[in-house]
Amino acid sequence: MKKWQVAVVMLLAALGSWFAVGTQAQAKTYTIATDTTFAPFEFQAKGGKYKGIDIDILKAISKKENFNYKLKAISFGAAVQQLSANQVDGVIAGMNVTDERKKTFDFSNAYYTSGVVMAVAKDSNVKKFSQLRGKTVALKTGTAGSAYAKSIQNKYGFKIKYFNDSNNMYNDVKVGNSVACFEDYPVMSYGIKNGIALKIVSKQYDAGDYGFAVKKGKNAELLKKFNAGLKAIKADGTYDKIINKYLKSDQASLTGETAKSRTFVGLFTQNIGTIGTGLWMTLELTVISIILATILGLALGVLGVMPGKVGPAISSTIIYIFRGMPLMVLAFFIYIGFPDLIGHGFKIPAFIAGMITLMLNEGAYTGAFVKGGFAAVDEGQMEAARSLGLPYWTAMRKVIMPQGIRIMIPSFINQFIITLKDTSILSVIGIVELTQTGTLIIARNFEGFKIWLMIAIIYLIIITLLTWLSNWVQRRIN
Amino acid sequence: MAKVIVKDLHKSYGDNEVLKGLNLEVQENEVVCMIGPSGSGKSTFLRCLNDLEVPTQGQVIVNGHDLSDKATNINLVRENIGMVFQHFNLFPHLSVLQNVTLAPVELKKETQAQAEKTALELLETVGLSDKANAMPKSLSGGQKQRVAIARALAMHPQIMLFDEPTSALDPEMVGDVLDVMKKLAAQGMTMIVVTHEMGFAKEVADRVVFMADGLIQENGKPEDVFEHPKSPRLQDFLQKVINV
Which of A213, A450, B59, B199 could form a disulfide with A105 if both were Cys (CB 3.0 to 4.6 A apart)? Predict the structure, then answer.
């Protein structure tokens, strides 16, 4: 076998083993999803570990009831979707028990009763709902705050803007794009205590109960265990201890961060481990996806310029579908929609789903310019090669492809950079890559500007290195 | 048996019939020049002989192989027909030597070493042995065309097709290319040459074929065609060409 063939076989073998490991590990342990940024119920502490009321309650109950679980921290929206698609066994994420949700999920007994409050910027003079008329209100999708605000929207005539993430919602209010946000009281008061420049201006409105959710009709045993465990930890005082621990202390005491670590350099050294892990995930995804997308793109390109009608038609259709679909939709479809379609508890690990998403999307773009590059090679080249007696594929390989690929190099470099940046979109299916790392760190310390600056600089550095590498390759080829 | 037999050859592009029923035989060692006004179908005819164009109707038999027969391996037939194009079509990413050795090596006709030896001899023949390692873009048009001839000869073809080989050249380059072609003709190569070089046709051709309007109008020895044109079309054509 030639070198490249060996490489392809090894890559496929690696992917295969990944699948195998991924499915084995989930056989006996419950996978439980939670939100990433919903302090004090769940948030990432220094070093990447998750902490919070939900996390501690789950841990205490699992000890009482003797079950193992794997925690999966993704956005709230993704957690709920994955539960309904049977990708996870349960969700504990400050989730409100509502009638609508009861149609899809079975809930445990309430483990917390919350209230919704309205918060505005520190220097704002908005105090009453009536002052919201015509203004924009920031909400986080799927929360009790969002449900409450929606119920009074018509009465007070405000506009709504949705966020997937609490911190982005707070920031939108802080910078003045929105005048107010609605949030669960413990979450809001905890955030304010820890440095968010907002203030609470309303009383607590009834927001109902938080419950642990499983998919309707599934995992009844887990639900039973949760209820029993909850009863037990309430009885022995563990529950109160957990609640007090989070609602009565400030964050620094929980995360171990100090004031002097809030400088740019301090933040960097403090979070270097987390950032490094995210960066590694981004690089891994980028490199593997670039390789796969390039293979797919070359195949689509070659198919696209083949004589006859079948090849070009297949190529155009594939390019049309995957280039036309937004990356995020494709990611959700592969990760959540596709297993749902197949059923039988079929699961795709997020990393594999992300990789396939990037391969198809970037591969389609690559296919389009590869096709263009081959078509740009003068027709006379193919004729000259064929007139010498070279078969079509030999002519393609020896004459058309080397010339076409030279034409395509700038497009390839461009596509590599786009792929790198597109990995950030995969945070929606719970892949903790560089961008998601930033979100998580900010959820803990609220240092939005410094952390995003840090993340931006890291992206620029990698892109610069990638460009240098590509230019070097380009010089070598020419 | 004739090297090339063409029977009732038709070629249409949509409603436009370019070749309207041609018949021609070319014998071994024969040099046939095809002349005629632009758009008369000369190039299309030539390209039908190695299947670069697929005839709409009719039969083309080359070296005994019927090109319209599905069982015919076109790649094997093409190995025995060299073709030289108006615009050279050298492979720009390969050196002169690699251009010449590509096909024999890829098709396992010769080892790399053998092919290079043959290539250097052929480059010597076309007067370019000093350009073996040059890239095509550094060559003049005339040099490119001579490399193209060497490239075609590297497969040791039994027939050579020339599609207006000097039409894209500066006037001072034409002579070098024609000299190479004359040398080939003298060695007994079977050649079909589409050309506007009447001097070359007169001097080298065994037979001259005049095409117009998708048909062969006259077909005969050079002296007959040039000195005693029968059809008004040919008389008119020669008048114009000679007056230029």
Answer: A213
**Residue A386 to chain B, least CA–CA distance (Å):** 8
Q: What is the DSSP string of A2-23?
A: -HHHHHHHHHHHHHHHHHHHHH
d(CA A33, CA A43): 13
Closest Cα in chain B to A401: B93
Question: Chain A residues contacting B, CB < 8 Å?
Answer: 378, 380-381, 383-391, 394, 398-399, 402-403, 406
pLDDT in tens, A17-75: 555 444 444 446 899 999 887 888 988 876 678 888 999 999 999 999 999 999 988 87
Looking at residue B244, what is its pLDDT?
Answer: 53
* Contact call for B106 and A381, based on CB within 8 A: no
Indicate if ipTM > 0.90: yes
Rounded CA-CA distance A285/A109 in Å is 40
Task: With cut-offs at 50, 70 and 90, classify the pLDDT of residue A115.
Answer: confident
Residue B163 backbone zone (phi > 0: left; psi -120 to 50: alpha; other: beta): beta
Q: Give A383→chain B minimum CA distance, Å.
A: 7
A388 to chain B nearest CA, in Å? Answer: 6
Asked if residue B178 lies in contact with residue B167, where contact means CB atoms within 8 angstroms, the answer is no
Give whole-number Cα distances, B226 to A116, A367, A465, B164, B229, in Å: 103, 55, 70, 19, 6
- On whether any CB of chain A is under 8 Å from the CB of B81, the answer is yes
